[in-house]
């Protein structure tokens, strides 16, 4: 089913919970530390980094946009499975940055937006009918006066999703293309068939996207109110850009392990994509923290939401008060719950989870809010 073909996504029971999850990574060490006690805390990192020199000519437009954001707060989750495992689980609440440009999206877009402003150009990108990336890009473009163009995998005669309605309301021009055309999106000159605007790959997956994540990366490891820094950092992965950006920004760092949780089938391929992004960004695996992937959390594939996942999210939200969605953060916390329940994280470990936002996508899963 095309992601544009219906106004709500359908649940599927194709797969079981991630009991068979596997790890793809560099050599692993034990994750342990003295037990820590913390409460809701605020990141005490320095202010948002200034734009890189080659983007400084963009003027005050992007800075004005970023003034809407502060570095996100860190909250400790009151979560039974974590307490029973003797593990501290914190969440970096990047979902709270902005109603439309939340999570990791603003950070991946900030340098392309600066370049578009500097060069007086629009931006063209691509995504599905429920794309968080296109949703955020359209909103940012509307606030900055940057024209935006979205190439959408789908059919123009199908009902518009709420995501695409929002994008159009924010002035984004939409072109609907076939799946066959969409598969060519990484080929040179692909976007030029539709527009001469600045091309931003799907999900912001570019060198600029990687570089723009530096402030968010630092917030992921900043100590809060004198408490110890995390030993394990987790994030859901789609394009792998956020994982590459965090690894590149943090560099070598003893006692820290960074884990990505792929949310689509063939997640093992993400390992090679992250390495390529690191290489193109001037980094190397020797200059990153120890890192790896937890495989097995895809729940049938990208944007699939079997009944067990919907049930998990409802129970998780009721217990923790933290709202998530099925595409990324729901699968991320389901994978973490599996590792905690099976004793796969050493007691005393402090875990920090990146909430990447995307809550607008919950509208595609009406079962989540069913009584």
From TrEMBL:
Keywords: Pyridoxal phosphate. Residues 101-357 form the Tryptophan synthase beta chain-like PALP domain. The keyword Transmembrane helix does not apply. The keyword Membrane does not apply. Its cofactor is pyridoxal 5'-phosphate. Residues 1-27 are annotated as: Disordered. InterPro entries: ACCD_DCysDesulf, TrpB-like_PALP, TrpB-like_PALP_sf. It holds the Pfam family PALP. It comes from the Bacteria. Residues 1-14 have a biased composition (Polar residues). Transmembrane segments: none annotated. Belongs to the ACC deaminase/D-cysteine desulfhydrase family. This is Pyridoxal-phosphate dependent enzyme. It comes from Cobetia marina (Deleya marina). The lineage of its organism: Bacteria, Pseudomonadati, Pseudomonadota, Gammaproteobacteria, Oceanospirillales.
